[in-house]
Specification:
The protein is about 40% helix and about 15% strand. The protein is an alpha+beta fold. It has a 3-stranded antiparallel β-sheet. It starts with 10 loop residues before the first strand and ends in a 17-residue tail after the last helix.
């Protein structure tokens, strides 16, 4: 088994994304427009987010809080200003 293989991609719903980041969809959509949150994946009328991208965003927020630089290679969005 290849231990360097990336984890499988998983989509999570807007509702699950709201729960994980503890923000309402209005905040999420504004942050997307501002380039500060991962863009959603639209399938039909459904809005989903790539789970690993949301997790990276959460890690970036923690890093920004702690005064650490986010991982540049995986960075897809800017941290949210406090």
């Amino acid at each position: 088994m290849d231990t360097n293989a990336p984890p499988p991609l998983r989509l999570i719903s807007l509702e699950e994304t709201e729960r994980r980041v503890d923000k309402r969809k209005s905040f999420i959509y504004q942050a997307i427009r501002d380039g500060r949150f991962p863009r959603p994946v639209k399938i039909g009328s459904s809005t989903s987010f790539v789970e690993s991208e949301v997790e990276d965003w959460i890690r970036d927020q923690i890093a920004a809080r702690d005064g650490l630089q986010a991982r540049p290679a995986k960075r897809r969005h800017a941290p949210v200003a406090a």
